[in-house]
Inverse folding.
């Protein structure tokens, strides 16, 4: 029987052995959540740890693992993965995997079954989004009872997760995400900065106000456009230009979807010629280094990866006073503005456009702040410590 075969696996016999990790991300989307597992795997491999991945075939997630030379066990769908438990457990046994780390709530269907049949494997789950509704029904109680730790990526999500999950509070840990700072170590020179700005459609000498992130209502692009329309009516010392950097989901990019609403709003607000939609950019770090101001008007950001990336690029951040952003942005590193207050956003933009010294000071402090707190190496050290602690208990 399958259960007999799986329960015979002895993955934990060598407790002193280093963690061998299986990253599980069965998603066809492509955002910060989906980008994270391959990025953290890169750092783990660099520190000598063995990492494998479980992903959907022909997905960007699978491709990102392949790009990092992480072996991928791929399936056509989540259902196919569920129907292939024997194959997955044999893979786990063959490669002596002793840690499974899941990244989406949907991943838990597979992950919880794997540790049920291989009880010496330790399961971890990172909540990258922030639970909005209680997860205390029969299925959630069963699935998350298999988890050693639920990781919350901010204090904001940690407080929500304590209420949402039927778990002891000490099994829910707050662990900020980390980023790889290698792309930000060298500042763009004048020529490189000009080339990036040209590719973004920014007029020469204009102050660039960037709006990075996936095109979805929760990110606040519409509020940003309303603020720019107010800014247009103000006396400002220099020319400015707004750039939206990011792509929409298939639903939001469909006819009459959110992207169409944004482009229509540009015309309605009289912003034609002042706002560019750049789409997805693989060189986000360079785009942020070429920007002067980064706006993050998200309504309930679970962490704020774009904030940390902009800070690492020495770009002045204006963020919403909501979600996790107040945890990241201090008076010395950026500006916070109330959600749904386009006039306040416009005034902050005007202040920063008129005061280059303030922009440079905030940007410099911001870079020093994130370099000391949000490096991927520090993040991985904390993750490995959790893995090791669970295996020794």
């Amino acid at each position: 029987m399958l259960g007999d075969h799986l329960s015979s696996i002895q993955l934990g016999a060598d407790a002193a052995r280093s963690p061998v990790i299986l990253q599980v991300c069965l998603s066809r989307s492509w955002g910060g959540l989906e980008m994270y597992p391959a990025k953290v795997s890169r750092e783990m491999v660099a520190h000598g740890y063995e990492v494998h991945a479980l992903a959907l075939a022909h997905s960007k997630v699978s491709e990102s693992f392949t790009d990092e030379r992480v072996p991928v066990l791929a399936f056509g769908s989540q259902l196919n993965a569920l129907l292939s438990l024997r194959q997955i457990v044999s893979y786990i046994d063959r490669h002596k995997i002793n840690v499974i780390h899941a990244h989406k709530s949907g991943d838990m269907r597979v992950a919880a079954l794997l540790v049920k049949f291989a009880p010496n494997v330790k399961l971890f789950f990172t909540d990258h989004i922030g639970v909005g509704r209680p997860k205390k029904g029969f299925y959630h109680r069963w699935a998350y009872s298999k988890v050693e730790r639920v990781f919350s990526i901010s204090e904001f999500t940690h407080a929500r997760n304590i209420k949402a999950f039927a778990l002891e509070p000490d099994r829910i840990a707050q662990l900020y995400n980390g980023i790889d700072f290698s792309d930000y170590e060298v500042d763009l020179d004048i020529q490189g900065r000009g080339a990036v700005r040209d590719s973004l459609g920014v007029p020469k000498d204009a102050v660039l106000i960037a709006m990075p992130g996936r095109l979805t209502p929760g990110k606040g692009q519409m509020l940003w456009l309303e603020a720019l329309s107010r800014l247009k009516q103000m006396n400002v010392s220099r020319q400015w230009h707004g750039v939206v950097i990011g792509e929409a989901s298939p639903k939001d990019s469909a006819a009459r979807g959110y992207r169409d609403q944004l482009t229509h709003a540009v015309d309605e607000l009289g912003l034609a010629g002042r706002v560019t939609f750049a789409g997805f950019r693989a060189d986000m770090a360079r785009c942020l280094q070429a920007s002067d101001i980064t706006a993050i008007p998200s309504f309930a950001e679970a962490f704020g990866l774009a904030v940390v990336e902009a800070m690492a690029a020495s770009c002045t951040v204006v963020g919403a006073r909501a979600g996790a952003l107040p945890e990241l942005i201090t008076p010395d590193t950026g500006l916070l503005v109330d959600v749904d207050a386009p006039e306040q956003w416009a005034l902050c933009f005007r202040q920063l456009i008129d005061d280059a010294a303030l922009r440079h000071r905030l940007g410099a402090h911001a870079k020093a702040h994130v370099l000391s707190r949000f490096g991927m190496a520090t993040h991985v050290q904390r993750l490995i410590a959790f893995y090791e602690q669970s295996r020794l208990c």
